[in-house]
Amino acid sequence: MLLLFLALAVLVMVQLHALRQQNRALARRVSLLETALDKDQQPAAAEPVPSVAASPEPVEDEFTFEADAGPGGAPAPSQRRGRVQPEPQASLPPLPRYTGPSPPPVPLATLGWWKKLERQFLENWTGILGAVIMVMGAAFLGGYAYLQMRPFHRFLLLAAFAGLLMGLFAFLRTRPKWLKLALWLRSSAAAILLFACLGAGGFPALQWITDPFAALALLCAAIAVNLALGVVGGRQAIAAIHVLLSLAALAAAPATYTTLVIAAVATLFGIALTYRERWDYHLLLTVSSFFLFHLSWYVRTLRGVEMPGRPMFGLAVVTAVGISAALVHYRQVYQSRRFEALPFVGHLLNWLYFGFGLLCYAQGTPWKTAFLAGGGVLAFGLARYAKRLPVRWLYLTDTLVAKLLLVLALVSLRQWQVGYEVICALTVLAGLLFAVLAKVEEEDLLFRVGTWLAQVAGLLLILLACLGWYGADAPQRSSYALWLGLCAVAGTVLHRAGGRHEADGQGILPGMQLLAGAMAVAAYVQLQQLPWAEYGLLLALPLFAWRQRNQDDALGRGLLLFLLGVHAVLWARLFPDAGLAWGLKVLHVLPLLLLSAGAASWSWHRVRKRAYPLVGIYLLAGDLLLLSYDLGRAYSPLIPGVVWLLLSLAALELSALPRLRRWGQADHHLLNVGHAYVVAFLVRYFMVHVPSEAYLGTVPVRLVVEVLALATLLYWAFQRRPAAEARDLHRTHLLPLYAEASLLLAVFVCLLELGEFWYPLCWMGLAYLCLAAGWLLRGAFSRLRVYALLFSWAAAFHVAFLSSSYVVPSFDWYRQAWVVATLAILLQLPFGYLLCTRKLLQDVRWPVSLQLLARPANLLSLQVGAWVFYPLFAAVAVFLYWTFDQTILTLLWVVEAFVIFAFSLLLRADHFRYVALTVIGFCLLRLVFYDLSHAGTLARALVFLGVGVVMLLIHALFNQFKGRLSDG
Amino acid sequence: MARWRLLLLLALFALGGSLAVQLARQRVQTPLESTLTRTYQVLGRPVQSLDRAFSRIIPIDSLDEKEFGEAIAARYASAKQGDAASSLYLQELVDKLAVFAKKPFNYRVFLLPTEVPNACALPGGVMLVTEGLLEALGSEAELVAVLAHEMGHIERGHCLAAVKYQVLFQKLKAPSLGKLADFAVGVMLRHAFSKTQENEADDYAFALLLQTPYDPAAVGAAFVSLQAYPGRSRRAQSGPRHADPVRDYFMTHPQLVLRQEKYAQQGHLWWRQHPTAKRYGGVTNLQRRESFYSRPLSTEWRHRGTGRGNGQSEKKPLTWTQAERIRSMNNSF
Predict the structure, then answer these.
(1) CA dihedral A767, A772, A774, A775 (to 10 degrees)
(2) What pTM value is reported for the model?
(3) How many other CB atoms are found less than 10 A from the CB of residue A133?
(4) Which one, A775, B166, B301, B327, has the greatest CB density within 10 A?
(5) How close, in Å, is residue A770 to chain B by CA atoms?
(6) For A2-13, what is each residue's pLDDT tens digit?
(7) Strand pairing partners for B111?
(8) Which residues of B touch A698 (CB under 8 A)?
(9) A810 contacts in B (CB within 8 Å)?
(10) Distance from CA of residue A245 to its chain's centroid?
(11) pLDDT at B200 exceeding the cut of 70
């Protein structure tokens, strides 16, 4: 029953396909009719529309339910093409031509969905469903008979029913309208007969023959009838269904050699039909049915009594069927340069079935490798033959099958104790060979398949090597490395040796180059434990030159991957290893340095007319950074930062070489490297040097490092690059910032190295330094004068708020905070004077990256005196208030007012004078209302004396220099 | 110009190269592989300066702090005290140190009966010392160094900065609001400059010790003595060796090993600059709880190249292994 339903399912599929083809044919006819109508409307002579039957356009697809023009079925395509084909001999009288319904069919496209459904149901599905329902009725009848009759009578009943159906066929076949139904009735009759004969020997309800030979003979007779009807049916659908039914019946019979032979004969008969006609669907169904039958037979015979010679017998049968089905396509009728999907699929499936059959019987024996390889060679030979025919799709199919069989043969090498890595490597090589051959023959599909095969196998090989690395011993790793290296070399050599792309002159295996790079890295991973394995990497060095000479981009990508990979491996392995002496470590890293240098040197791209040394430069810089880190740390953790500073200087100097400037903007990359070294130093400095309190003799190491760092940053800051390029970010944005970086580092160093006691003097020192630098260097460093003002503000802030509360556990006057604060105040006075009189806040230039500061700096330049002195005077007032005794505060503030007054004369700034007079007024009020009541007699006397003297001095100054006042 | 540039470049390479060679020859090591606490300590200085400036502006002064401290002292005076002889001994040392104080406080020290070695300072001149600290330290000079450190916190205004809002709002009769404000500011800002404050207190202690007859190397030696405390050695062994930006930021104190190295070096330098000087150690004084001022012992004087603290300072900087033993031993002083 299962097979029956399977057959029905196949039938339904075939029917659906046929319906689709019919629809397409009808649509085509309608369009032809419309074209004809358009032509006829031109002369306005209305001619009758030609009937559908008389349409000159043949239906291309033969797998339809149209009736045959001659006896037995529809005309074969070859007949339609005018070829002379032998007429099939039939004993039945000729059937009338099936022309379809008499009125011209309305085009399907113009009908509604209900009408379409109705028409398709009436034209096709009624026949199919009718046959199916009838068979089911027969089954029910059999069931009823089972209950009422003896088995022989049941058999007779079924046979009679089959005869009845045949009678109906004979009655209806002369009527064109019922011809379709008649054909299906005939097939149904044959199926019922087959069912009855099968049951007569095997089904308990129908069995009336006990002798197995007799039962088999009866079954064979029924199969013969079915096959004969398949032949006389004249159409592949009918032939296929009868072959399928025959095999299904045999599948229900006991699994013996005899049934297998009968099935093979039935199948061969079915295949033989395809030599007569080009029946691709039939062939596909026939070989698929046999495959299923054989599978069933094989599984059933596995469990039973051991059958002597079973493998050889099975092999013979499978080979006979497989070869017969394969050879169908090697005929002139298939000659085509187009790709045809249906025969392609049929042929491919046949090969797969064949291969599977071989595998069934060759399983367990190591000799299957020879069978598979032989099959591969045979398929390859057939492919060459197909190419000569020429049948293009067949050539492709057989070549693919040959590849597949060869791969299977390689996989089967495992039974010869060959390692997986060897199998993968051989597969890679085979894939590459196929790809190159296909490229030579300009077969893109085969080339792609070969390339993909090689790449997938290569990936597997890399995966195997990586996963097996930990558990492998030395010989195993060497084996991995050998095969990986061989594949990488083969991929690289064949890439160039196999030909060139015409368009760009590149090699033929671009994807393989990336894989070759990965393979080379994996090979190095396997060998890295060997002493001096790094020197093996130098074998790749000529490839960089080769890449440049041939200008092969794919090879370049592979080399790039290789370069990055080996760097990662070596960095991960070598640098954490502290047990290696520094000289040895340098020798081990030397190949990496050479490779990076090679990558940078041979980086010319001819089409783009520029070099790409950046990867080599950055990797070289990374090598040096890690090497210096590792080597330096082994002796002292303070060394790497120092070396990085020196390396940054080296990169800076190298970038200034004119030759490197022209070499693919190597100067930019070197400057980037230099910046990176500086950043690396700063990170190291903050984490390692800053916490260190080490001394070299009496000199603190940290201080020396800080001096070196400041000098290096200043060296960078003084660099000038030629304005050759319009967009040189180093010149416009980055290099100018080194002045600010130096300054920030200087501030940090002061905060770190000096006690808070010295900060006011420190800020004033930096203010003078910036002022001097901004004044003397002018131009690019003029902005330092603005920073000088900021430092003076910092000093004023410290004096005002911090110095007064800073206590020192000492009674020495020179250790007191107010002394330093006073010195800072005294230093600020000439500083402010210089800034105002020399107009140093004017004409300040800012780099592009600091343009945001230009606007507030310009604001400062408008009222320099105010910005400089008012913070100072306020800070001094606050400092005096918090530091000294309240009794002498009036005197001190008056002195400050005197200084302000003096500066108003010096700078010719009236507002200072107003401020000074206001302060004096305030001090006089304080003198009267505070000092008189709070101060002691002596203090009061001294304060009054002091204030009086200062006011007299102010008076004297005013009279002496009043000409300097604008309103004087 | 090019010539000068070349000369400068050569000079830089010569300086860097010779420095690297010297470092390699002497195999100069660092106490930790890397840490950011010192960097944070420096970066915390601007924040601390602003905080101090703000503390200066708000209307509280030393007299307010003194009044606040009196209340605290009264509370601790009524609590359980440690050994009476030890208390008197401590107070005598503090009284001698308070001579150098600039703030108008009555400096008092309370001995807490706790085995854990610790000390802390409170506003208004109140100091707390545990009995465990007296046992952990090796000499009177080390004890004086610790007391000087706590005094530094008070003198430099760190204690007042921590309670400034409470003192301010106490004047306004709303101390709870002040506590809340102190807590909020502490959470937000205190970690930024707490390490800076510790460094300031350490510097103060070293400077104060120079004014006394005690060995200045005792500041570093006090940190070394703490490694004898068994409860801390386990922590020291399992502590972090590498910098962690977040962890280092939230540490309230710099690692003990860093402080030890810094003041050991400074003590070492002092001894090199004063080869003929003699300084007091006071190992026996500490054991007997009799201060140098009441009973000086001739055997406790140290010269260059002798004595415990000096011996430490004469050594080369700590090796990695030595440093590991006392690493990350944070405490309250």
Answers:
(1) 130
(2) 0.72
(3) 11
(4) B327
(5) 21
(6) 334 444 454 455
(7) B129
(8) 269, 272
(9) 100, 207, 211
(10) 51
(11) yes
